[in-house]
């Protein structure tokens, strides 16, 4: 059962196993199938599949976004992307965010989940409270942190008042610091989600295992290291997958805090913000869509590789286990 | 283990402070004046002023945005859950050629975030004449909400025992009658979970409204907060008040359904 549901987080998967059936289906059933699934397919194809295909199509044109695209340039947009340093910077930022998200948020979230995975007073309240940032919208998160981290904001003020005035800085505009500020905000917002996932994973681990280890004289840390962490593997791998896809697609927080002009000078632009800046705000739709296609291909390739090599052991059980 | 406890509580307390600090800063900051904020950015209100809040609560723009966000979120939620459960029922309990392909189509949707398709989507909405309308935001939101909904609901509907279906058939209940009388009531927990995810997603969504809605009258709350923050950028206290008021509906909703939300998210992993 555990592994069956695990597939749900994992993007493209094999369909649920078919039960063998000899008889064909009648027209009545076909009608029911069409009537029940038709509306969902229609909406999904119109507003998801079709636009994605159109992005690929527009990417071959030099186009301002109005009228029918006529100026076919073939792969020119993609050749430009290869030489576009602004895009390369954005891609590099995505890579930084991806790696930092994994190495910062993962251990922090696992440590917090270990901390909270025990009997203690007020545990349920703590769980709810650390989840609050996840529920607050990106716009509110961005607006609040932009106010706190500006040079004359509350962040620097608190540092002054506790005698750390030497540490005050221009957290958002300094290119050396901005990416770390972004990582801090991302961690603040999304660590609660990771903690909730890990706690759920830990509750699936039978108590008997750690009890038996404790009887055998294992210390608290040995139990965590040799029992909890390995058994938490599937949850960690699913979380990492969601985190990787989220890092590649990151748009909202960067665009809200840094806006279209500042993100590139502060060193926080991402492929998605660059795509919007080029495609919509500079009315360079053809090029913006080519950027979108590159973003899509990168996400797809990484997702497929990840599923092939990392998630495979989780999904294998799911495919054979059925449900 | 017992002597460790004080440290655990201390860490937990620090953690809560860090997670809630910014939220409290926004709410309390709204009770200050701009001069208070300039003099001491991290201080407490002295005296507490309520004008920032009362003025926003008296403004039409704020309530219009609350209304727009509510309409968009409610319609999106109802439609995603309705279309989602219908399609999931077909995927879970009918056997036909092309079923695997249909499942793969929706599952692949998880990897097509709105970011990639946003400019063609905008052009499509423009051609449909839906720019600056709520349906222009709602329709794509339904479409992008379907993959998650279907992925969560299909295992749920498959888990309904075959025996119940057979018993219903013997009682001369048609497949559609079975869907209506048995499947829907039995899947209420799954419907609520997916509904909550769709509602929060819609309530907080930013990129899609940013492209589709340019007219202040049609703004949803996230766009309203951003417009307000840039319009009154020197009036920090008012921005803080506006931001904290716009936070309340999501927080109330979350506190009401907290168990369901957390349960729904973990259910996707835990099984």
Automatic annotation (TrEMBL), chain A:
It is found in: Cell membrane. SUPFAM superfamilies: MetI-like. CDD domains: TM_PBP2. Residues 1-20 are annotated as: Disordered. Residues 91-306 form the ABC transmembrane type-1 domain. Keywords: Cell membrane, Membrane, Sugar transport, Transmembrane, Transmembrane helix, Transport. GO terms for biological process: transmembrane transport. This is ABC-type sugar transport system permease subunit. It comes from Paractinoplanes abujensis.
Automatic annotation (TrEMBL), chain B:
Keywords: Cell membrane, Membrane, Transmembrane, Transmembrane helix, Transport. GO terms for biological process: transmembrane transport. The chain crosses the membrane at residues 7-28, 71-91, 103-125, 137-157, 178-200, 239-257. It is a multi-pass membrane protein. It is found in: Cell membrane. The keyword Secreted does not apply. Residues 66-257 form the ABC transmembrane type-1 domain. Pfam families: BPD_transp_1. CDD domains: TM_PBP2. GO terms for cellular component: plasma membrane. Belongs to the binding-protein-dependent transport system permease family. This is Raffinose/stachyose/melibiose transport system permease protein.
């Amino acid at each position: 059962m555990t592994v069956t549901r695990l597939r749900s987080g994992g993007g493209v998967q094999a369909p649920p196993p078919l039960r063998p059936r000899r008889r064909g289906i009648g027209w009545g059933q076909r009608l029911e199938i069409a009537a029940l699934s038709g509306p969902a397919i229609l909406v999904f194809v119109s507003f998801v599949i079709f636009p994605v295909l159109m992005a690929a199509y527009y990417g071959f044109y030099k186009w301002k976004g109005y009228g029918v695209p006529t100026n076919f340039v073939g792969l020119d947009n993609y050749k430009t992307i290869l030489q576009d340093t602004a895009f390369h910077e954005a891609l590099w930022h995505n890579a930084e965010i991806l790696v930092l998200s994994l190495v910062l948020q993962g251990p922090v979230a696992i440590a917090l989940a270990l901390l909270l995975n025990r009997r203690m007073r007020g545990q349920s309240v703590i769980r709810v409270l650390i989840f609050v940032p996840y529920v607050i919208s990106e716009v509110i998160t961005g607006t609040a942190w932009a106010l706190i981290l500006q040079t004359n904001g509350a962040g620097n003020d608190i540092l002054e008042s506790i005698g750390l005035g030497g540490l005050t800085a221009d957290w958002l505009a300094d290119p050396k610091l901005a990416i770390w500020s972004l990582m801090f905000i991302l961690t603040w917002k999304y660590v609660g989600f990771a903690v909730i996932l890990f706690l759920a994973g830990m509750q699936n681990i039978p108590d008997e295992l750690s009890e038996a280890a404790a009887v055998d004289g294992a210390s608290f840390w040995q139990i965590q290291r040799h029992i909890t962490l390995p058994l938490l593997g599937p949850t960690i791998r699913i979380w990492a997958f969601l985190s990787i896809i989220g890092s590649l697609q990151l748009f909202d927080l960067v665009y809200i805090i840094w806006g279209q002009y500042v993100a590139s000078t502060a060193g926080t632009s991402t492929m998605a913000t660059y795509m919007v800046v080029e495609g919509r705000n500079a009315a360079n739709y053809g090029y913006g869509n080519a950027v979108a296609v590159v973003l899509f291909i990168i996400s797809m390739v990484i997702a497929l590789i990840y599923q092939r090599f990392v998630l495979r052991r989780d999904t294998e059980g799911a495919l054979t286990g059925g449900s | 283990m017992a002597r460790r406890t004080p440290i655990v509580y201390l860490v937990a307390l620090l953690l809560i402070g860090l997670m809630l600090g910014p939220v409290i800063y926004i709410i309390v900051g709204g009770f200050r004046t701009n001069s208070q904020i300039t003099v001491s950015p991290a201080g407490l209100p002295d005296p507490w002023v309520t004008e920032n809040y009362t003025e926003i609560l008296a403004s039409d723009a704020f309530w219009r945005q609350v209304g727009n966000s509510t309409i968009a979120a409610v319609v999106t939620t109802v439609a995603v859950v309705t279309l989602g459960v219908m399609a999931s029922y077909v995927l879970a309990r009918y056997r036909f050629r092309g079923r695997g392909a249909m499942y793969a189509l929706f599952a692949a949707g998880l990897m097509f975030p709105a970011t990639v398709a946003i400019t063609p989507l905008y052009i499509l909405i423009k051609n449909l004449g839906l720019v600056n309308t709520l349906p222009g935001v709602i329709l794509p939101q339904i479409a992008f909400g379907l993959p998650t909904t279907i992925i969560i609901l299909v295992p749920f509907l498959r888990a309904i025992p075959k025996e119940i279906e057979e018993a219903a058939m013997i009682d001369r209940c048609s497949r559609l009658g079975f869907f209506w009388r048995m499947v829907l009531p039995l899947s209420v927990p799954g419907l609520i979970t997916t509904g909550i995810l769709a509602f929060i997603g819609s309530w907080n969504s930013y990129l899609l409204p940013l492209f589709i809605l340019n007219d202040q009258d049609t703004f949803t709350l996230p766009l309203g907060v951003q417009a307000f923050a840039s319009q009154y950028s020197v009036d920090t206290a008012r921005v803080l008040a506006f931001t904290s008021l716009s936070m309340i509906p999501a927080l109330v909703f979350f506190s009401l359904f907290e168990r369901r939300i957390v349960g729904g998210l973990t259910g996707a992993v835990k099984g």
